[in-house]
Amino acid sequence: MEQVGLEAAGSVSLWGLFIQAGFIVKLVMLGLIAASVWTWAIVVDKAVSYGRARRQLDSFEQVFWSGQSLEELYRTLSDRQTSGMSAIFVAAMREWKKSFERGARSPIGLQMRIDRAMDVTLSRESETLEARLGSLATIGSAAPFVGLFGTVVGIMTSFQAIAGSKQTSLAVVAPGIAEALLATAIGLVAAIPAVIAYNKFSADAGKLTARMEGFADEFSAILSRQIDEKLQPRAAAQ
């Protein structure tokens, strides 16, 4: 009896449960492990990229509000690969310069074109910030159900084996039940970090986007005043 107890105890180790699992349950476990690895890869990538984005926003705001000439700042940034507020600024200034080079006459039309250019760039930057967050949401919502599916299949297989052996002792039942529940446990291990990370990074993306929207509104007001200064005397002379 003691030997049987030792064999049963050995069979409920995590590796032993995985090895004993059926093909479908193993497939479910491997898929959930892969989803967990993908989740942590996204978490690390987003933590690094969002930190870099915050530093870039802080750096650009410091330079922009330092009193430096807009033309000089545009010349500095126009040849670089920009992102965030820098990309919004470059898009607006590029439209500004193109419009005046072509002899813009309507302040309203020019303002609309500049705002449209900033909106398109802002939308692109927001999409970049939110990239792969959908994967976290999918893993967080689906992983527990996938794990539960593996558990149901494992329990069904275990009960079929019990019925075939006609033995219902705890030593016979426990490994099969534990094997089935392992799939649910792995599903939760994959889902919980994904849900937490999705909520945090969604909030962070929203804050970064709000900062860029605020800058776009402020810069639009600055350009609107300069448009009035440039085009109103021209209109009055005509």
Protein architecture, described:
The protein is mainly alpha-helical. The protein has one domain (2-237). It is built from 8 helices and no strands. It has helices spanning 2-11, 14-20, 23-64, 70-78, 85-101, 107-130, 133-165, 170-237. The longest helix has 68 residues, at 170-237. It is rod-shaped and about 95 Å long. The N and C termini lie far apart (107 Å). The model is unreliable at 1-10 (pLDDT under 50). This is Tol-Pal system protein TolQ. Belongs to the ExbB/TolQ family. Residues 110-213 form the MotA/TolQ/ExbB proton channel domain. It is a multi-pass membrane protein. The Tol-Pal system is composed of five core proteins: the inner membrane proteins TolA, TolQ and TolR, the periplasmic protein TolB and the outer membrane protein Pal. They form a network linking the inner and outer membranes and the peptidoglycan layer.
Task: Produce a short descriptive summary.
This protein is mostly helical.
The residue ranges in which pLDDT falls below 50 over 5 or more consecutive positions are 1-10
**Mean pLDDT value:** 83
Structural category is mainly alpha
- The oligomeric state of the chains shown is single chain
What characterizes the major β-sheet?
none
What is the terminal-to-terminal distance?
Answer: 107 Å
Cα-atom radius of gyration: 30 Å
Strand tally is 0
Element string (H = helix, E = strand): HHHHHHHH
Shape: rod-shaped
Percent strand equals under 5%
The helical percent reads: over 70%
Q: What is the overall number of helices?
A: 8
Number of domains: 1
